[in-house]
Specification:
This is Anaerobic selenocysteine-containing dehydrogenase. Pfam families: Molybdop_Fe4S4, Molybdopterin, Molydop_binding. GO terms for molecular function: iron-sulfur cluster binding; metal ion binding; molybdopterin cofactor binding; oxidoreductase activity. By secondary structure, this protein is an alpha/beta fold. It folds into four domains: about 55 residues, Phosphorylase Kinase, domain 1; about 190 residues, Rossmann fold (3-Layer(aba) Sandwich); about 180 residues, 3-Layer(aba) Sandwich (Dimethylsulfoxide Reductase, domain 2), CATH 3.40.228; about 130 residues, Beta Barrel (Barwin-like endoglucanases), CATH 2.40.40. Helix content is about 30%, strand content about 20%. It is built from 25 helices and 32 strands. The strands form ten sheets. The chain has a seven-stranded mixed β-sheet with strand order 5-4-19-18-17-6-7, with helices on one face. Helix 5 crosses helix 14, helix 9 runs antiparallel to helix 11 and helix 11 crosses helix 12. The chain binds ligand MGD (2 copies), iron/sulfur cluster and molybdenum atom. Molybdenum atom binds next to loops.
Length: about 700
């Protein structure tokens, strides 16, 4: 028997852990953490072990399929590409170029081939109806970075290995393994922080796994964090503790804007005591090195943009931006900023609801209505790539119905699931262990500068295609629809370069002048050291200055001031993630999802009593958008008035071809979240803080 141990990194979440994969006679028999990885230092979570299930998965498609009256039929790659391009071309000829819509899902940012080849393909479709998971995820981070630092991807990450005070809002890295902050082994890093004498403070409407190990946790009424953050800024300024670097403008305007946001006022809205707010402000301002960080709970809510701006402002005025132990800008070996424009916002608006584009994409909350609403510019065909928006985006039922009305749909996806079951053609890419891996995006967000290249662990079967080959072949066909131009010659040259060649170039022109050859000699990765100060030189504004007084954000303050605080029996719905679930997929990996069921609606026991409900009972959760039935579970970890449901569930719809384990047999949270409920600044979906009622079934 031939046994080898190969190295790669896990691409299932943002932590990019190094793994050792044992292969016996072509089959994976073991996966464990790679101690030699300078970033993950041996850490892995249960998802890495499930990488082998993706490889051996009987549900996974290995050849293109086409939907016919007699069911799914396997077809060849060339026939599939021709079918896709001729149908998309036909729809655009008849209804105009915006008649093709595109949704790009989460796994794209974890695949090298998607990052190198997908943007060029999408560009050839020439449509403004582009959507992605960004607008139900990190858009507010990118908007704040674009406004303050001049580039949508110039993200400041908490320097958690050196900080002495970490203030975390709406993040649960003990379950999620961290996000917009690549910090594998977050639990260990947090313990080290505490051992150094540091303090961790968590603000969350649920006492999460992370809150449980923090030094301090406070419940916050969902959707109101902006008031808390403004009060912290108010307090720091009022105490004369605000300082700004020579390249920072706009403190006076901020001072005026936060003037009315006293700790007392914020307390009434957030539910956090005024004394606690004052103390946290003082501790944060006087800590040796402090970092404020907020994630999904403060991004995908009604004031996401305001929250992410305020977090930056707090870090900046306490002198913590760009200093060790504060929040810092990574300097990766391949500069991801080069691959993406600086960004823009509101250059055009969506047809039906007038929501602003961001970075060339429209908010996903408007996707279903753009398909369903008749008129010029209506979407008649969809392209979904690595996404399951029927489960992942608000009012998924409406989207489910909308996809059924399309003239044509193609999905690049390995599975026939709740979304792709609507497709006419599905193009399945080769799985992660058959791909070369370099993490272009997440080194850009990492708490330490490191670099790592790995060749594919397993060979790709002859008949299989990599995602980048699919994008290349589709794009080349799309390019050939119209006469050649200089621009198109360049695009096709770029498409013909392999990801490995592109990474090699990126490494060579990068700040450390590395190369693929150098990295291949250190397959466990190389350490490039702790994060270094970079401002003002690294700013992308021509002025090399940061202006805190961003009109677009300050103009949103009246909306916060008008926020109703009354709560007449209504409950607010929030989301959650579990270590053993991965967004809307992998629920067919029994090895991953094992354990107790975890789809239940969590509710505080006092609320259960108030609503005459009992633990374990089946209840209806209803919002303006819809109703789901689900078991309720009593939990002291929930803030009174708040209920929690995880997203990514709701499998087993007719036509979906996934085997689903019992542990995940719950409804889709996005059948109750409301596509009309957005952060109006840039249209981010507000899937947290959704008003609902809960009644006995
Ligand atoms: N209510 C609520 N909704 C949420 C969230 C929430 O917190 N609450 N979170 C939001 C967030 S942060 C995100 S990122 C989105 C995620 O939502 P999506 O963008 O839909 O992404 P996933 O759920 O990860 O879906 C993955 C899809 O990609 C396919 N896939 C897996 N691997 C590959 C691959 O390598 N290549 C290709 N081509 N396809 C692949 C899978 O089969 C599946 O169809 O959900 C969002 N939705
Ligand atoms: N195991 C696992 N890991 C994952 C994923 C997964 O599905 N499973 N998904 C990946 C993806 S795509 C992402 S984007 C990241 C997300 O990473 P995180 O943001 O760390 O993940 P969540 O668990 O969604 O944490 C959001 C927290 O916000 C809280 N919250 C909700 N509403 C509010 C509010 O109004 N205010 C405050 N302060 N808190 C609120 C919730 O209770 C929850 O604890 O995780 C990634 N990692
Ligand atoms: S933490 Fe993320 S990258 Fe690390 S093993 Fe788990 S899923 Fe993979
Ligand atoms: Mo996400």
């Amino acid at each position: 028997m031939a046994t080898t141990v190969r190295r790669t990194s896990c691409n299932l979440c943002e932590a990019i852990c190094g793994v050792l994969v044992t292969v016996e006679d072509g089959r994976v028999t073991d996966i464990r953490g790679d101690e030699s990885d300078p970033l993950s230092r041996g850490h892995i979570c249960p998802k890495a072990v499930a990488l082998r299930d993706l490889q051996d998965d009987p549900d996974r498609l290995t050849t293109p399929v086409r939907r016919t009256a007699d069911g799914w039929q396997e077809i060849g790659w060339d026939a599939a590409y021709d079918l896709v391009v001729s149908n998309l071309t036909e729809v655009q000829r008849e209804h105009g170029r915006n008649a093709v819509g595109v949704y790009l899902g989460n796994p794209n940012v974890h695949s090298l081939g998607a990052l190198t080849h997908l943007p060029t393909m999408v560009r050839q479709l020439k449509t403004r109806n582009r959507f992605s998971a960004t607008s139900i995820d990190q858009l507010p981070h990118m908007l704040a970075s674009y406004l303050l630092y001049g580039h949508q991807l110039m993200i400041a990450v908490p320097d958690i290995d050196r900080t002495s005070y970490l203030l975390m809002l709406g993040a649960n890295p003990l379950a999620s393994n961290g996000s917009m902050m690549t910090a594998p082994g977050f639990g260990r890093r947090l313990k080290d922080l505490q051992k150094r004498g540091g303090r961790v403070v968590v603000i969350d409407p649920r006492r999460t796994e992370t809150a449980a190990v923090a030094d301090e946790h406070h419940f916050v009424r969902p959707g109101t964090d902006a008031a808390f953050l403004l009060a912290l800024i108010h307090q720091v300024i009022a105490n004369g503790q605000a300082t700004t670097a020579s390249y920072v403008d706009g403190l006076e305007a901020v001072e005026q804007a936060v003037e009315p946001w006293t700790p007392e006022r914020a307390a009434g809205i957030t539910g956090i005591d005024a004394d606690v707010i004052r103390r946290i402000a003082d501790e944060f301002a006087t800590a040796d090195r402090a970092a404020c960080y907020g994630r999904v709970g403060v991004s995908t809510q009604q004031f996401g943009a305001l929250c992410q701006w305020a977090i930056q402002v707090l870090n900046i005025i306490t002198g913590n931006l760009d200093r060790p132990g504060g929040t810092m800008f990574p300097r990766p070996a391949v500069n991801a900023l080069l691959g993406l424009g600086r960004g823009h916002v509101g250059v055009w608006r969506s047809r039906v609801r007038g929501l602003p584009e961001f970075g060339g994409e429209l908010p996903v909350s408007t996707m279903a209505e753009e398909i369903l609403t008749p008129g010029d510019g209506r979407i008649h065909a969809m392209v979904t790539i690595a996404g399951n928006p029927v489960l992942s985006t608000p009012n998924g039922r409406k989207l489910d119905e909308a996809l059924d009305t399309l003239d044509f749909m193609v999905a690049v996806d390995p599975y026939i699931n709740e979304t792709t079951r609507h497709a006419d053609v599905i193009l399945p890419p080769a799985p992660p262990l058959e791909r070369d891996h370099y993490d272009v995006i997440f080194h850009q967000l990492a708490v330490r500068n490191t670099s790592r290249w790995n060749d594919a662990v397993l060979p790709k079967p002859e008949q299989a295609r990599h995602d980048w080959e699919i994008f290349r072949d589709l794009a080349l066909r799309l390019l050939s629809r119209t006469p050649m131009s200089r621009r198109k010659v360049l695009a096709s040259a770029r498409l013909r370069m392999s990801p490995r060649r592109i990474v090699d170039l990126g490494l060579r022109i990068g700040p450390y002048r590395l190369s693929l050859r150098k990295l291949r000699n250190s397959p466990g990765g190389i350490d490039l050291g702790p994060l270094q100060p970079a401002l003002p030189g690294a700013l992308h504004h021509k002025t090399k200055r940061i202006d805190l007084a961003q009109r677009m954000i300050l103009d949103d303050l009246p909306r916060l001031a008008a926020l109703a605080t009354g709560n007449d029996g209504e409950l607010l719905l929030i989301g959650r993630r579990h270590l053993r679930n991965n967004n809307s997929w992998m629920h067919n990996s029994a090895r991953l999802v094992k354990g107790k069921p975890r789809h239940q609606l969590l509710m505080n026991p006092d609320d259960l009593a108030k609503h005459d409900l009992s633990d374990g009972q089946l209840v209806n959760v209803s919002s303006a958008a819809g109703t789901v039935a689900v078991e309720v579970a009593s939990s002291n970890d929930m803030m009174p008035g708040v209920v929690s449901l995880p997203h990514g569930f709701g499998h087993g719809r007719p036509g979906s071809r996934l085997s689903v384990a019992n542990q995940v047999a719950g409804p889709s949270a996005n059948d109750v979240t409301d596509a009309e409920f957005t952060d109006t600044v840039a249209g981010t979906s507000a899937v947290n803080g959704v008003p609902v009622t809960v009644t006995a079934c």
